[in-house]
């Protein structure tokens, strides 16, 4: 945790799932996927997307006139979960963005990530349960089934990016170490969305669960928006908190039905 993070207050827990939001064209919803919209699974491909969730997100997008998924997953992975081209997406932590059907690749050659994955595999394969996930423009090392391997895998990640200058950065999430382009953060992705005519002059709303979402919480706060942390209490730039993805999905359903703010 950085010095600035230690000065952050804990978010305000929201009783009775009551967030001060009424969906309208005033809002620009930005939503993380894993640990926020969806429960985290043992492996990324094992997550489950409730049919009702896609209907709810579609209703919110229709009401607001926009909605974007902001995720560490690749664009094909996000489309496989929520439907090809259904929503705008900031994929690979913002390295790849799709707005209004137009894809913008911010990261350049995906072959660099493939080479990074190949460099990591010998170290990762020494730990049962750990595995490398190639995501096009970024790489993830998962160790949920091998938590004792974290320090060794983190060292391997640092060794993998050594010599690459400032091209890459390491993100530590929930039982995952990600290597992503230095220029790609969820905060810069939201700033790019807000500069687009489809999102301009709207108040940003972002929900996320992980420390890798803090850039986005800071970005929406700076733009006068509202951040919601999903999960246990911790110091964060988010203003509010809900305890779980299930609670967040319930609130989303209620917000569409008009039962909550």
Automatic annotation (TrEMBL):
It holds the Pfam family Trehalose_PPase. Transmembrane segments: none annotated. GO terms for molecular function: metal ion binding; trehalose-phosphatase activity. It catalyses: alpha,alpha-trehalose 6-phosphate + H2O = alpha,alpha-trehalose + phosphate. Its EC number is 3.1.3.12. Pathway: Glycan biosynthesis; trehalose biosynthesis. It comes from the Bacteria. Its cofactor is Mg(2+). Keywords: Hydrolase, Magnesium, Metal-binding. InterPro entries: HAD-like_sf (IPR036412), HAD-SF_hydro_IIB (IPR006379), HAD_sf (IPR023214), OTSB-like (IPR044651), Trehalose_PPase (IPR003337). GO terms for biological process: trehalose biosynthetic process. It is an enzyme of class 3 (hydrolase). Removes the phosphate from trehalose 6-phosphate to produce free trehalose. Belongs to the trehalose phosphatase family. This is Trehalose 6-phosphate phosphatase. It comes from Prosthecodimorpha staleyi.
């Amino acid at each position: 945790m950085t010095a600035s993070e230690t000065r952050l207050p804990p978010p305000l827990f929201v009783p009775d799932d009551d967030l001060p939001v009424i969906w309208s064209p005033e809002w620009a919803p930005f939503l993380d996927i894993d640990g926020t919209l969806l429960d985290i699974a043992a492996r990324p491909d094992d997550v489950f997307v409730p049919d009702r969730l896609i209907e709810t997100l579609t209703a919110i997008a229709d009401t607001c006139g926009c909605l974007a998924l902001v995720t560490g997953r690749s664009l094909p992975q996000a489309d496989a979960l929520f439907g090809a081209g259904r929503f705008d997406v900031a994929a690979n932590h913002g390295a790849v963005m799709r707005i209004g059907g137009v894809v913008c690749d911010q990261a350049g050659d995906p072959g660099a990530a493939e080479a990074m994955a190949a460099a990591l595999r010998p170290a990762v394969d020494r730990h049962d349960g750990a595995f490398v996930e190639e995501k096009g423009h970024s790489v993830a090392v998962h160790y949920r089934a091998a938590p004792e391997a974290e320090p060794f895998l983190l060292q391997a990640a640092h060794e993998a990016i050594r010599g690459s200058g400032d091209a890459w950065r390491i993100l530590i999430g929930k039982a995952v170490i990600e290597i992503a382009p230095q220029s790609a953060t969820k905060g810069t992705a939201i700033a790019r969305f807000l500069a687009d005519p489809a999102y301009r002059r709207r108040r940003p709303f972002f929900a996320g669960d992980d420390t890798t979402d803090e850039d986005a919480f800071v970005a929406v706060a700076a733009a006068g928006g509202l951040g919601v942390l999903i999960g246990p209490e911790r110091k964060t730039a988010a203003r509010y908190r809900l305890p779980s993805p299930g609670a967040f999905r319930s609130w989303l359903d209620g917000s569409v039905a008009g039962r909550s703010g």
